[in-house]
Amino acid sequence: MMASFKFHNYKILDSTNNKAIEFAKKKFYDVVVIAERQTKGKGRFNRKWFSDLGGLYMTIALKVTDLEKTKYLTFAAAVSVAKAIRKTAKLNALVKWPNDVLIDDKKACGILTETISGRENYALVGIGANINQKKFPGSISDKTTSLAIETNKRYNIKKISKEIMKEFSKLYSQYKKNNYNKITAEWKKYSHTLGRKIKAKTMNRTYTGKAIGVDEDCNLILRLNNGKIQKIIEGDIFIA
Ligand code: BTN
Fold first, then answer.
1. Does the pTM exceed 0.85?
2. For ligand 1, atom 9, which residue shows the shortest CA distance?
3. Which of 10, 64, 135, 224, by CA, is between 20 and 30 Å from 20?
4. By alpha-carbon position, which residue is closest to atom 7 of ligand 1?
């Protein structure tokens, strides 16, 4: 059965991920938390996520069995956002490993998936998508874009969130049937990463090589310049 999601809309929150964590702790799931802006938007690696009016800030709270597989939810969310952007704004949105959506090589969306483990496990899939913003802070402005910047139009943010959830629901039903390869296949279709020469910065090291695939845990597989195969589990990647 396709899960049906209940939307909870807020004007302002510290972080939609935090609100979704509160919901999950009360055993509420299949819930979508949306805020018009956030005061403490979180990015990966404790980075700040700029969350002014005009962006889409949403978190999907899900109940999961296998915490090892939650990276597929991040992939599924990225694909859903890319598809929603393609449909709404007719732009060539692509997914970048592990958790971004790019338009014109610039970041249009980031995803932060957090988990709660215990007797029951939950995943909170947080999506930050740049929609109607026209400007970003100087430090990120040259590598960031929005639908409005790309097309000179304004979009209905709620409508885009619904479109994302329409796509996500389909992939999530595959996820629940353990059809992870279906999610990977979709991700590969829209991949900006695969086939490219990449520089991967992990906690301890930087690797340069060609991105040749993703494995069954959504890790990135690089063929290094010396021919060695290197698995990248976490980190940031750049086009080399
Ligand atoms: C990243 O690229 O580092 C991930 C950014 C994720 C941002 C979104 S905005 C909605 C949700 N709430 C948060 O605090 N973070 C995520």
1. yes
2. 128
3. 135
4. 128
